[in-house]
Amino acid sequence: MPPARGTRAPGGRSLQVGLVVTWLSVIVLLPLAALTAKSFAGGVSGFWDAVTAPTALAALRVTILVSVAVALLNAVMGTLIAWVLVRDDFPGKKVVNVLIDLPFALPTIVASIVLLSLYGPDSPVGIHINATRWGLVVALAFVTLPFVVRSVQPVLLEADREVEQAAASLGASGPTTFRRIVLPTLAPAIISGTGLAFARAIGEYGSVVLIGGNIPRETQVASQYIQQAIEIDQPVNAAAVSVTLLAIAFVTLFVLRVAAGRGRRREEEVR
Amino acid sequence: MITVTGARKDFGTFRALDDVSIEIPSGTLTALLGPSGSGKSTLLRSIAGLESLDAGTVVIAGRDVTRVPPQQRGIGFVFQHYAAFKHMTVRDNVAFGLTIRRRPKAEVRAKVDELLEVVGLEGFQHRYPAQLSGGQRQRMALARALAVDPEVLLLDEPFGALDAKVRADLRRWLRRLHDEVHVTTVLVTHDQEEALDVADTIAVLNRGRIEQIGDPDTLYDAPDNQFVMSFLGSVSSVGGTLVRPHDIVLERPAPDDTRANGPGRVLATIERVVRLGFEVRVELRDADGERFAAEVTRGVAQQLGLVAGEQVWAVAPSHAVRDLPQPPDAGVPADAAEADEVASTAGVGEPARA
Amino acid sequence: MTTSTTSRLTLRTLALAYLVALLAVPVLMILWRTFEPGFGAFWESIRTPAAISAMNLTLLIVAIVVPLNVVFGVTTALALVRGSFRGKGFIEAVVDLPFAVSPVVVGVSLIMLWGVGGWFGGVEHLGFRVIFGLPGMVIATIFVTLPFVVREVEPVLVEIGTEQEQAAATLGASGWQTFWRITLPAMRWGLTYGVVLTIARSLGEFGAVTMVSSNFPGISQTLTLLVNSRYIDDQNTYGAYAAATLLMGLAVVTLLLMTLLDRKRSTT
């Protein structure tokens, strides 16, 4: 819409834009620029050496491995939970629905403590996953739970149930209808939720810091490696792994955005 | 009195106003009529100061306001989609302009009460816009605009978002209101029926230019060009001659008729005879396959015994035919820079276009 | 989908079992562990000087971060929605950036910029200690909460459009009057929602803050840092549970507020 006269921004538009650019630069861009500069302080080879140092590489490998596992777990369980919340009906459904957001509201360190109290050293149920990769998976599954549920739920709500009924009337069984009709509609939402969960998982720190155990080459994730590198005063190593993490997150989100754009275009063509 | 001189406005490469000049006398109700993208809304918004002109001047009540912001132009503006302040009650909406001007509370109260009565919303003052119908919202918006005693009242397709029945009621109500209040009013519309119904003066716009200004009768009976003729009222083409359908004379061909087709005179086949109350519309097709319509009284139709499938002469009598020039840039632009207008073009009263 | 009762029950059981094992039981567990020794013990544990100081520091950070985020968040949203300028797409992307950055990476970046030897490290000589000081914790919290207000206000601004603002202008309202009387009230629920999200995240931020805090009990510990240090450094498991329960209480309040606001937002 063309900016109309007389409704000029308080203080004027250009002042506003200047303010915004300055603010975002100081808070977001300059720190990230300084980080990137530091990671290349020893040139490209310095960066490469820092990232491929055995402990660094192991931490990155553990991070990605566990994050992929958690993302896949989310894809399945998140879709299932969303389906139950939309299509099923049972007493207490509303409470469950609100509960889904709890991991977003709960501080990550609290998530860590909460899981430790049940699955930690003095577990009352006899499950000890403290300082194992399973501990990482549980912690990350906890904090990323809402992503897939919350992206699938609205799509499922809007999905045209008549299409499913048509499939059933044509003789398709329940599972067949789900696989051939429902799943394709939900796929974009599942993929985007899974991608967001993955991006969150690779950078997660607070929820794994207590339950993960921080054992190098075993359960130490990238964020813990970075924290330790700062502690023992190896800023270049910390910066290089940080930039790697950033790059993975950006690529993930970028791919998601492109995929979403393509999917939307295809649906519009159908119309 | 509003005087616009040499107004020009571009949106990117689209010229919305192209050297427009118009004078709107005090106390009149003038309609700016035209198709989508004709520049009528841009002209109104330029008078209000919501758009700034690339060239030309706007003078309101003797004051050059070309560079004056809308706040200080002494205008009241009514938007197509009401622009109701949703978080305020009807009373607070109407009182807004007065509150901004820091008028004493008692004065605001009295003025708002008076206006609510004028627009027939007394008893609704504590409601929120969401609790009003579209017609009520627009009357509230009108009261809000009138509250500040504007020099001129500007209405941008004020009834465009309402359904046909409410629209007709509201425009007659607006006409009565204008006769009471006498504030200089400019109304933008794409609906010729609306313009003919309420306005003292109509300015027909097309492609950023004013094609003709005049009272409704003049525009209808003596259009300056083909665009104005076809935009106001319906038009039939008899062998290439433009004429109003009710001016067409139908004649039964004589057995030994040897007259040839010519401009304003064709032998046509009756496709359908439609009764519209007192009038009868005869749908015709000439030998070239061109379809057109004539309107005759029921008496004439019965006298001629018009039946589908038969042939008649359709004649455009010379007194009804004017040799009209094409407008300078003939045609209707498909470009729709004014998005709001596009949304409402689907309304009733859409005139047939040449 | 026409699902048989058996398969529906199976799916329901699976989903609920997952949620119970992952969410419900751990949360109930920590509540039980906190309140098993009695409410008095909990109360004492969160009234120690270190805990009170952590509470105060956390609230102080919230009190600084929220107004800054409101002012700059609303300004950014207005510029992005109402303005047209070159580089708008870039600004949009930058606003989303904090969502993609690991909290630890935020901390490291701030150290590289503001720490000793960093680009802005010089400010320390002027007596302005950012890293290992309050400013660092504030900036870290602003970094991670930056998108919330912008992203909640933006869609509201798009939806209300400019007509109401134009109408206010024709009625004589100046730019600031229009902002205070029309624009701000119209976006109040979106803004409130953004503020609630900001508060929740500020209360709970751990990774970014832990990197830039000197982490001294009673001086530079926030509530989240307190939970961590009680568990790790003091081996005070109960104290950690109690502090975590306190934070959880705040989170639940936030959650309820969000649910209520969501309803409010969708009805107005």
From TrEMBL, chain B:
<dbReference type="Pfam" id="PF00005">
    <property type="entry name" value="ABC_tran"/>
</dbReference>
<dbReference type="InterPro" id="IPR024765">
    <property type="entry name" value="TOBE-like"/>
</dbReference>
<dbReference type="GO" id="GO:0043190">
    <property type="term" value="C:ATP-binding cassette (ABC) transporter complex"/>
</dbReference>
<dbReference type="InterPro" id="IPR017871">
    <property type="entry name" value="ABC_transporter-like_CS"/>
</dbReference>
<dbReference type="InterPro" id="IPR008995">
    <property type="entry name" value="Mo/tungstate-bd_C_term_dom"/>
</dbReference>
<keyword id="KW-0813">Transport</keyword>
<keyword id="KW-1278">Translocase</keyword>
<keyword id="KW-0764">Sulfate transport</keyword>
<keyword id="KW-0472">Membrane</keyword>
<feature type="domain" description="ABC transporter">
    <location>
        <begin position="2"/>
        <end position="232"/>
    </location>
</feature>
<dbReference type="InterPro" id="IPR027417">
    <property type="entry name" value="P-loop_NTPase"/>
</dbReference>
<dbReference type="InterPro" id="IPR005666">
    <property type="entry name" value="Sulph_transpt1"/>
</dbReference>
<protein>
    <submittedName>
        <fullName>Sulfate/thiosulfate import ATP-binding protein cysA</fullName>
        <ecNumber>3.6.3.25</ecNumber>
    </submittedName>
</protein>
<dbReference type="GO" id="GO:0015419">
    <property type="term" value="F:ABC-type sulfate transporter activity"/>
</dbReference>
<dbReference type="InterPro" id="IPR003439">
    <property type="entry name" value="ABC_transporter-like_ATP-bd"/>
</dbReference>
<keyword id="KW-0378">Hydrolase</keyword>
<feature type="region of interest" description="Disordered">
    <location>
        <begin position="322"/>
        <end position="354"/>
    </location>
</feature>
<dbReference type="InterPro" id="IPR050093">
    <property type="entry name" value="ABC_SmlMolc_Importer"/>
</dbReference>
<dbReference type="InterPro" id="IPR003593">
    <property type="entry name" value="AAA+_ATPase"/>
</dbReference>
<dbReference type="Pfam" id="PF12857">
    <property type="entry name" value="TOBE_3"/>
</dbReference>
<keyword id="KW-0547">Nucleotide-binding</keyword>
<dbReference type="GO" id="GO:0005524">
    <property type="term" value="F:ATP binding"/>
</dbReference>
TrEMBL record, chain C:
<dbReference type="InterPro" id="IPR035906">
    <property type="entry name" value="MetI-like_sf"/>
</dbReference>
<keyword id="KW-1133">Transmembrane helix</keyword>
<dbReference type="GO" id="GO:0005886">
    <property type="term" value="C:plasma membrane"/>
</dbReference>
<dbReference type="InterPro" id="IPR011866">
    <property type="entry name" value="CysW_permease"/>
</dbReference>
<dbReference type="InterPro" id="IPR005667">
    <property type="entry name" value="Sulph_transpt2"/>
</dbReference>
<feature type="transmembrane region" description="Helical">
    <location>
        <begin position="12"/>
        <end position="32"/>
    </location>
</feature>
<comment type="subunit">
    <text>The complex is composed of two ATP-binding proteins (CysA), two transmembrane proteins (CysT and CysW) and a solute-binding protein (CysP).</text>
</comment>
<keyword id="KW-0764">Sulfate transport</keyword>
<feature type="transmembrane region" description="Helical">
    <location>
        <begin position="126"/>
        <end position="150"/>
    </location>
</feature>
<feature type="domain" description="ABC transmembrane type-1">
    <location>
        <begin position="55"/>
        <end position="259"/>
    </location>
</feature>
<feature type="transmembrane region" description="Helical">
    <location>
        <begin position="191"/>
        <end position="218"/>
    </location>
</feature>
<dbReference type="GO" id="GO:0015419">
    <property type="term" value="F:ABC-type sulfate transporter activity"/>
</dbReference>
<dbReference type="Pfam" id="PF00528">
    <property type="entry name" value="BPD_transp_1"/>
</dbReference>
<comment type="function">
    <text>Part of the ABC transporter complex CysAWTP (TC 3.A.1.6.1) involved in sulfate/thiosulfate import. Probably responsible for the translocation of the substrate across the membrane.</text>
</comment>
<protein>
    <submittedName>
        <fullName>Sulfate/thiosulfate transporter subunit membrane component of ABC superfamily</fullName>
    </submittedName>
</protein>
<keyword id="KW-0472">Membrane</keyword>
<keyword id="KW-0813">Transport</keyword>
<feature type="transmembrane region" description="Helical">
    <location>
        <begin position="238"/>
        <end position="261"/>
    </location>
</feature>
<dbReference type="InterPro" id="IPR000515">
    <property type="entry name" value="MetI-like"/>
</dbReference>
<keyword id="KW-0812">Transmembrane</keyword>
<feature type="transmembrane region" description="Helical">
    <location>
        <begin position="52"/>
        <end position="81"/>
    </location>
</feature>
<feature type="transmembrane region" description="Helical">
    <location>
        <begin position="93"/>
        <end position="114"/>
    </location>
</feature>
